């Protein structure tokens, strides 16, 4: 059972002027900002200038959001091709920080921020924290990883904007997490949903739940189900909220659900959403599933036009029971690519391929990724076919090879993997697109 | 020195059978077999009558195979001979990576097969101790 039942919930809205704005007024605001960002990128970002010229589109042609389909798309590959600073719209010296996420091959996907971008990011997360019922009196235990990944830093910025106390735990070391939660009196916890469940069960086993003051959980960075949320809520007696974001757009805080759990409210004054049919690129109607595409309306350092997230979802523009008019996206139904989220980290099969190739063979050995969840932790096993170049007569050399592959993959993917050496031809070959991943998690 | 085949197999039922079936249908005679395992995979080591053909055949059937030189030593079937051989090597500071033996047949003495990191030193030590080395042709 959750901490606070719906009947007793008091809704607080950080920025009612924006979050409860009429649809017409929001459209007008978004239109003004869109025209502005298009003008900025046309004149300051070579990539967009070329793309728009190729389409025969000029900033003057974009009068409002109704003209958005005239604009070019941006993909992860574009970010890779312009890595690291090729998409900057401001001088590099004005970039106050960078954050990164997994790339599809060897390099990270890098995002740059101006001071204002950082402030907006913090503000968006603060809106989400408020939506989750938090305020400046709260103590937020943040166990998302801190570093290039946006999880830890994003929640930290949000806590700062809110005026709450941030406990920057980063990820790992469950025993220490539990001790600090108890000692510092955390009232909220931010971490991936699978870690929340793992932590909940550890706390339950340690008999610590009664000693804690946690009433709220903010979880994201990986897909999760309604069942998982209820399970975490019932073990810890807290209210759990689903926070969404992506590094390329800003990080966590792009959207989050409210107490009614009827979709994730998008901070649409900053991030303009489109749901497009991935085959035709035509806009989907409300409640129709398509690919989520974002345009950043106010980012200074690295604004993006029509960034294809590859996440499949649907949108609802109706006013929510909480009073917010910001559009809501439904639970993600899948992706248009092979990307998997393992313990909160994005992993692409192509990264595995690149890493295996880097080990020196002419061709990457055949591999298969198997994703499972055991004791609430994601486990990635990479099966690698042993071929003539990899095989050695000595067990210890094969063992060393196995460990080396594990180390190379860990370095490339950012998560530990299990390596299983298998006989040649055990991994199914296919005529068409190779099956690279088997996900047994049923998410 | 004698030739030895190593085949990579996974730890599952039928792994050895798949290899021996393949060799049988290629009319290869298996003289010795030993397996060395880890929790997940194993290396099957074989001494056969025609190692080059065996390798070719197994590779064509999709196995990963390597052919190595290993030392073969013929020991008289008497107590203490294995111990003597192993002692000679130990005293010479020569380490044995793995060792296995042949099935006795046609009244020929048992043959010990082993791998070491320093073949020259091992052969020298064994000869000096009057221990009989076996060459491929004698098998």
UniProtKB/TrEMBL annotation, chain A:
<protein>
    <recommendedName>
        <fullName>Phenylacetate-coenzyme A ligase</fullName>
        <ecNumber>6.2.1.30</ecNumber>
    </recommendedName>
</protein>
<comment type="subunit">
    <text>Monomer.</text>
</comment>
<dbReference type="GO" id="GO:0047475">
    <property type="term" value="F:phenylacetate-CoA ligase activity"/>
</dbReference>
<dbReference type="InterPro" id="IPR045851">
    <property type="entry name" value="AMP-bd_C_sf"/>
</dbReference>
<dbReference type="Pfam" id="PF14535">
    <property type="entry name" value="AMP-binding_C_2"/>
</dbReference>
<comment type="function">
    <text>Catalyzes the activation of phenylacetic acid (PA) to phenylacetyl-CoA (PA-CoA).</text>
</comment>
<comment type="pathway">
    <text>Aromatic compound metabolism; phenylacetate degradation.</text>
</comment>
<dbReference type="InterPro" id="IPR000873">
    <property type="entry name" value="AMP-dep_synth/lig_dom"/>
</dbReference>
<dbReference type="InterPro" id="IPR011880">
    <property type="entry name" value="PA_CoA_ligase"/>
</dbReference>
<keyword id="KW-0547">Nucleotide-binding</keyword>
<feature type="domain" description="AMP-dependent synthetase/ligase">
    <location>
        <begin position="89"/>
        <end position="294"/>
    </location>
</feature>
<feature type="domain" description="AMP-dependent ligase C-terminal">
    <location>
        <begin position="344"/>
        <end position="441"/>
    </location>
</feature>
<keyword id="KW-0597">Phosphoprotein</keyword>
<dbReference type="InterPro" id="IPR042099">
    <property type="entry name" value="ANL_N_sf"/>
</dbReference>
<dbReference type="GO" id="GO:0000166">
    <property type="term" value="F:nucleotide binding"/>
</dbReference>
<keyword id="KW-0596">Phosphopantetheine</keyword>
<dbReference type="InterPro" id="IPR051414">
    <property type="entry name" value="Adenylate-forming_Reductase"/>
</dbReference>
<dbReference type="GO" id="GO:0010124">
    <property type="term" value="P:phenylacetate catabolic process"/>
</dbReference>
<keyword id="KW-0436">Ligase</keyword>
<dbReference type="Pfam" id="PF00501">
    <property type="entry name" value="AMP-binding"/>
</dbReference>
<comment type="similarity">
    <text>Belongs to the phenylacetyl-CoA ligase family.</text>
</comment>
<dbReference type="InterPro" id="IPR028154">
    <property type="entry name" value="AMP-dep_Lig_C"/>
</dbReference>
């Amino acid at each position: 059972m959750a901490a606070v039942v719906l009947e007793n919930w008091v809704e607080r809205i950080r920025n009612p002027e924006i979050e409860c704005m009429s649809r017409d007024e929001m459209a007008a605001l978004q239109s003004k900002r869109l025209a502005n960002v298009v003008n900025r990128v046309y004149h300051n970002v070579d990539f967009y200038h070329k793309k728009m010229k190729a389409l025969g589109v000029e900033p003057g042609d974009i009068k409002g959001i109704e003209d958005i389909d005239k604009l070019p798309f941006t993909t992860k590959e574009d970010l890779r091709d312009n890595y690291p600073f090729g998409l900057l719209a401001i001088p590099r010296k004005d970039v106050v920080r960078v954050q990164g996420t997994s790339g599809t091959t060897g390099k990270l996907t890098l995002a740059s921020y101006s001071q204002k971008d950082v402030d907006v990011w913090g503000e968006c997360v603060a809106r989400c924290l408020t939506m989750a019922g938090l305020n400046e009196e709260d103590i937020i235990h943040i166990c998302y990883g801190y570093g290039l990944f946006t999880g830890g830093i994003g929640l930290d910025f949000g806590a700062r904007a809110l005026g709450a106390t941030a406990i920057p735990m980063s990820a790992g070391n469950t025993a220490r997490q539990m001790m600090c939660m108890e000692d510092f009196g955390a009232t909220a916890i931010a971490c991936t949903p699978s870690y929340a469940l793992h932590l909940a069960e550890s706390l339950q086993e340690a008999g610590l739940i009664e000693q804690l003051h946690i009433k709220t959980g903010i979880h994201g960075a990986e897909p999760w189900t309604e069942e998982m949320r209820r399970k975490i809520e019932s073990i810890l007696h807290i209210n759990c909220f689903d926070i969404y974001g992506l590094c390329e757009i800003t990080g966590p805080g792009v959207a989050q659900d409210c107490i009614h759990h009827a979709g994730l409210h998008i901070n649409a004054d900053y991030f303009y959403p489109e749901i497009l049919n991935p085959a035709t690129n035509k806009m989907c109607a409300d409640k129709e599933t398509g690919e989520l595409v974002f345009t950043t309306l106010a980012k200074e350092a690295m604004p993006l036009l029509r960034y294809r997230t590859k996440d499949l979802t649907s949108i609802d523009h109706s006013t929510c029971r909480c009073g917010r008019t910001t559009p809501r996206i439904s639970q993600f139904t899948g992706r248009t690519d092979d990307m998997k989220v393992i313990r909160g980290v994005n992993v692409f099969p192509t990264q595995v391929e690149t890493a295996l190739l880097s080990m020196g063979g002419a061709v990457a050995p055949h591999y298969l990724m198997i994703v499972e969840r055991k004791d609430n932790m994601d486990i990635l096993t990479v099966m690698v076919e042993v071929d003539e170049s990899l095989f050695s007569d000595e067990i210890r050399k094969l063992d060393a090879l196995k460990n080396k592959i594990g180390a190379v993959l860990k370095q490339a993917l950012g998560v530990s993997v299990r390596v299983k050496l298998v006989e040649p031809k055990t991994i199914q070959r296919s005529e068409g697109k190779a099956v690279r991943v088997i996900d047994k998690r049923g998410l | 020195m004698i030739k030895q085949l190593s085949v990579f197999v996974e730890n599952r039922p039928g792994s050895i059978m798949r290899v021996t079936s393949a060799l049988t249908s290629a009319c290869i005679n298996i003289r010795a077999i030993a397996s060395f395992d880890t929790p997940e995979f194993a290396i099957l080591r074989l001494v056969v009558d025609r190692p080059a053909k065996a390798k070719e055949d197994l590779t064509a059937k999709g196995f990963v195979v390597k052919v190595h030189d290993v030392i073969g030593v013929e020991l008289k079937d008497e107590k203490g001979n294995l111990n003597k051989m192993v002692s000679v090597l130990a005293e010479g500071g020569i380490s044995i990576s793995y060792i296995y033996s042949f099935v006795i047949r046609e009244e020929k003495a048992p043959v010990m097969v082993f791998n070491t990191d320093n073949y020259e030193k091992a052969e020298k030590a064994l000869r000096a101790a009057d221990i009989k080395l076996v060459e491929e042709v004698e098998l």
